[in-house]
Amino acid sequence: MNSRERVLAALNFTEADRIPIHDNPWASTVDRWHAEGLPSDVSPAEFFHYELAVYGADTSPRLPVKTLEESGEFIVETTPFGGVRRNRRDYSTTPEILDYPVKSRADWERLKARLLPSPDRVDWSGTDPIGMTAAKTFDMYRIKPWIEWRQGLPGHRQARAAGKFICYAAGVGYDKLYNYIAQEELLMFIATEPEWLRDMYETDTDLVIRMCEIMRQGGYEFDGAFLYCDLAYKNGLFFSPKTYESQLRPSFRRLFDYFNGLNLPVILHTDGRVHQLIPYLVKDGLRCLQPLEVKAGMDLIALKEAWHGKLAFMGGIDTRLMSDPDPRPLEHEIRSKIPVAKRGGGYIYHCDHTIPNNVSFQQYLRVLALVRQHGRFDAPESPAP
Questions:
Q1: Which has the closest alpha carbon to 228: 183, 281, 270?
Q2: What span, in angstroms and rounded, lies between the C-alpha atoms of 309 and 300?
Q3: What are the extents of the domains in the chain?
Q4: Which fold has domain 3-60+105-375?
Q5: HSE of 246 in the Cβ direction (CA atoms, 13 Å)?
Q6: Residue 149 CA from chain centroid, whole number
Q7: 39: cis peptide before it, omega within 30°?
Q8: pTM assigned to the model
């Protein structure tokens, strides 16, 4: 089986030869792996045969990115949204946010005028200077392998010939607005400016949908959609389910309806504890939830038992155990979870976050060896945890 067939089997709740495998190391992690044995001219996606290839458009206001300050350890830059971020030079941590572009409705209207669909929002040739056009959209420069397969239509054709499951990628919703407005103010606007937030959600949704149409008309072929929107933190949602239902749900429903109408199953990335939103997401057409953050209480086995046949899962393997010098906790994590999660399809391997740079190349090789061992459908059942 190729990757496309394997991922589709999982998303359609059927068993294949083995579970699909995908992951996302930080850019600094990749740098470490290159120094420890990963060939210098090969990406993790190619070396480890990750199953998904992800392509998207730039759905930011496309303001110029400028370096404002540099030191030995840090770099201060503007963003395509007009904000200012202070990053480590290796982009190994979440950036410190120094300024936001939207402080008034007039600021939003000024940026909204720049959010028009256009073919030049797409890296057609594969020569984008950053090499990851879509990553601009969801402010994830530090996580290079989100967009790790070779870019542009030439890269897309290579991925298609290699049998990869190709996704249209976009940052959407609340998490997207966080690029425009400070989170404290954004949470206040939920109560005081609901119509303004709805306008922001819908403007972005329009652009995300239109850019997918432009990419498809230009030759891109997609097997699914991968949407990014953090909706929660460790202890719960950023806002109530009632707020989600009245403000953000209409945009999510539009997105799910659009992609499902093209027969493109939707995978949603959201960190944090999102149990309360799962009924809404399932009812509105979400196919797969990712990454199931363990420290936030997202229990892969419990979720599988509760939602099998209705919602597939991608993730749920505790990243923190990958760097533990004692191999036993990680072995137990994989042996106890994957044989249960894989039954009847509906599971794609992924760690529960992104892989940090404290995980060595040799440790990660061991992770995938265990995943492949326990993820085969012809493998003997492991003892119940």
A1: 270
A2: 14
A3: 3-60+105-375
A4: TIM Barrel (3.20.20)
A5: 10
A6: 14
A7: no
A8: 0.93
